[in-house]
Design goal:
The complex is a heterodimer of chains A (about 375) and B (about 240). Chain A is α+β, with helices and mostly antiparallel strands. Chain A folds into two domains: about 5-45 and about 250-385, no CATH class; about 55-210, no CATH class. Chain A contains eleven helices and 16 strands. In chain A, the strands form four sheets. In chain A, strands 1, 3, 6, 7, 8, 9, 10, 11, 13 and 14 form a ten-stranded mixed beta sheet that branches. In chain A, a hairpin with a 6-residue loop joins β15 and β16 (about 340-345). In chain B, α5 (about 150-160) runs parallel beside α6 (about 180-195). Chain B is built from seven helices and ten strands. Chain B has one domain: 3-Layer(aba) Sandwich (Rossmann fold), CATH 3.40.50. Chain B is globular. The chains are: A alpha+beta (about 375), B alpha/beta (about 240). The complex binds adenosine-5'-triphosphate (ATP) and magnesium ion (MG).
């Protein structure tokens, strides 16, 4: 085997072309990382419960929480349906929630819709990894609120200790900041349901009920009971169905992202191939010498393929690392259901790493293959005559 | 040993083809070289010296005829076998040294040993020995561009002898050197011949260089036109 230090030093020797190629491949990998960071963030936000047995109960005819409302008394009835999962204290996982989407002022002065959710005490148990990371939970009836971490600071009055004002009537003091595993709740402000009902004059109503069945069979039975019997006559949707629209957005983004990543990789492949062809050409006599000394065609192939992979890996690694700090950033997008501002956090997880790795390898292998083949096809004697 | 010649060529022809036209380079060569001979090969440009050297070294194959080196018929071996055979049996010395610019003197000399099963420690020992023989101890960490032409050629010679090959081939080893450096290189080659009994084939244009050899062959238009056993100058 021709030692790898031979490749490293050759890359260093022609450092100008090496640097340019690294920057090129790095930019390609970085832009794909950003794209797939968005896709992964979106997918994460759709993984609302992580629990396939969750149901969302809406008024018949509604397709989203905003246009749905029904009587608070039905929540108590719903909680008595057999087959509903319970928390460790034995309370049924069935939360009646009230949603309001007022226009609020952003920190930068512009205005956007913000989801204010009147929560049930059991609501946190129905969200994945719900955690209060600052402050404490709200006390009912005191005009307090919890703010999702990505929202905190994005709107006026949403930092811990500040007071969030939405319109004339609504005003909540921030007593805690929460995270919810990157799920949909991370775009929301949570308040006491009764506070919200009072402020918006909807006492006695809820927008929807979130509930969790104990098993898949129970879920189907509960869904049937709610939808077909005369007792409820409500709509019960699986959460995955509720978010289907957005899943399509996620899919579209994934497809577009993949196409762009493939095209960019092909472009970068040519850049890498160009660099490697130049390397083979300028080292023709060296290749002849190595072959004369007894190194095989296979040794030479590995050597140049290795150099190409090394070159692209440096670019790929740099591109990937450069985008990592972006995971602290969130981007706003409009939720198609509520038209409220929805914040999604860039996520540089396994998907992004896999994309970066696959692109790097593809660029390295395919960019290096043809130059390496040219290197091994050189006639030893002719190569040695090269000056 | 003894009986068997180091090199035996019988009926060797070599021709190149260029667009249907055959260009004969070597015609019906017959040659026997004994072990430990130091052969100088002279002749006008284009007479086929490099071609002949490449055949002996297993870099090229004859169109017809037999090339037997150290008892091995090179024509019978596959490309992979012949590459392995080369790495063990032949040391190459080139006119332009052909060192690898990004490797130090030590690393250049070590290259052929990477094809053997020697341990790192044994390799280091062999490289040190080879560099001592060519008088370059203490220059291990120098890169080729930090050395003079003569020193570069010494490193190349160290690389050629580090595997203790059976045959050394040198194509105009002093062609790119000034008189002084050329003398030193020739001195070194003669020493390898005298002290280590290496079989050496050296192509040269320089009559003074040729006089160092124990036997002088002359090639013209692909034919051997002269074969003289020379009296060895006694080293002072
Ligand atoms: N690959 C090849 N294809 C065609 N012709 C070739 C090839 N290699 C060598 N020749 C021809 O063979 C002849 C002998 O070449 P060779 O290199 O052996 O000569 P030489 O004696 O070493 O010359 P010099 O002293 O200039 O090095 C030349 O006429 C050359 O043009
Ligand atoms: Mg020649």
């Amino acid at each position: 085997m021709i030692p790898i230090k031979y490749n490293i030093r050759n890359l260093r020797r022609r450092w100008v072309t090496t640097t340019l190629t690294i920057i090129g491949t790095g930019l390609v990998v970085a832009s794909s990382c950003i794209l797939f960071g968005m896709v992964e963030g979106l997918q994460q936000s759709l993984r609302v419960s992580g629990d396939p047995n969750d149901l969302m109960v809406l008024r018949k005819g509604s397709t989203n929480e905003t246009s749905s409302y029904f009587d608070l008394s039905k929540v108590v009835e719903l909680a008595t349906i057999p087959g509903i999962a319970r928390d460790e204290k034995g309370r049924p996982l069935c939360a009646g929630e009230l949603v309001n989407i007022p226009v609020c002022e952003r920190a930068n002065g512009s205005r956007a819709n913000l989801i204010i959710r009147g929560m049930d005490p059991i609501s946190p148990a129905l969200r994945p990894n719900f955690k209060i990371i600052e402050g404490r939970t709200i006390e009912p009836g005191k005009g307090e609120c919890l703010v999702a971490k990505p929202i905190s600071g994005r709107f006026k009055g949403t930092r811990l200790g500040e007071t969030l004002k939405c319109g004339e009537r609504e005003s909540y003091r921030v007593v805690g900041v929460f995270t919810a595993g990157g799920g949909a709740a991370e775009s929301e402000v949570w308040v006491d349901r009764n506070d919200l009902a009072r402020n918006t004059q909807r006492t006695g109503f809820v927008s929807d009920v979130q509930l969790r069945a104990a098993s898949a069979a129970d879920r189907d039975a509960i869904q049937k009971t709610i939808q077909t019997g005369t007792q409820f006559n409500l709509l019960a949707m699986k959460e995955s169905d509720y978010y289907a629209d957005q899943q399509i957005t996620g899919m579209v983004l994934l497809v577009i992202g993949s196409v762009i990543a493939v095209l960019l990789s092909i472009g970068a492949m040519f850049a890498a191939a160009n660099t490697m062809f130049a390397a083979v050409k300028s080292r023709t006599r060296e290749i002849g010498t190595l072959r004369a000394l007894g190194f095989s065609r296979f040794d030479v192939l590995l050597c140049f393929l290795g150099e190409s992979i090394l070159l692209c890996s440096l670019g790929g690694l740099l591109g990937w690392l450069a985008t990592l700090p972006m995971s602290a950033l969130t981007f706003g997008t409009n939720d198609f259901n509520s038209f409220a501002e929805k914040t999604i956090q860039f996520r540089f997880g396994p998907l992004v790493f896999a994309v970066a790795f696959a692109m790097t390898m593809a660029m390295g292998v395919f960019g290096g293959l043809f130059p390496a083949i040219r290197a091994i096809r050189l006639d030893v004697i002719k190569a040695l005559r090269e000056v | 040993m003894g009986q068997e010649p180091a090199i035996a060529l019988r009926g060797v022809c070599k021709e190149y083809r260029r667009e249907q036209i055959k260009i004969p380079v070597l015609t019906d060569l017959k040659l026997t070289v004994d072990e430990g001979e130091f052969l100088a090969l002279m002749g006008p440009s284009g007479s086929g010296k490099t071609t002949l050297l490449n055949l002996l070294a297993g870099l090229d194959r004859p169109t017809t005829g037999e090339v037997v080196v150290h008892g091995q018929d090179l024509a019978q071996m596959s490309e992979g076998q012949i590459a392995r055979w080369r790495s063990r049996n032949v040391g190459f010395i080139f006119q332009l040294y052909n060192l690898i610019p990004v490797l130090t003197a030590f690393e250049n000399v070590e290259m052929p040993l990477l094809l053997t099963s020697l341990s790192k420690r044994q390799r280091r020992e062999n490289v040190r020995t080879a560099l001592r023989v060519v008088g370059l101890e203490g220059r291990e960490d120098h890169f080729p561009r930090q050395l003079s032409g003569g020193q570069e050629q010494r490193v190349a010679i160290a690389r050629a002898i580090v595997t203790d090959p059976y045959l050394l081939v040198a194509d105009e080893p002093t062609g790119d050197l000034d008189r002084q450096s050329a003398e030193e290189i020739l001195e070194l080659m003669e020493q390898l011949h005298r002290e280590f009994q290496k079989t050496i084939v050296m192509v040269t244009h320089d009559p003074i260089a040729a006089r160092r050899a124990s036997r002088l062959l002359k090639l013209d238009k692909g034919k051997l036109v002269g074969d003289v056993i020379q009296a060895q100058e006694v080293a002072s």
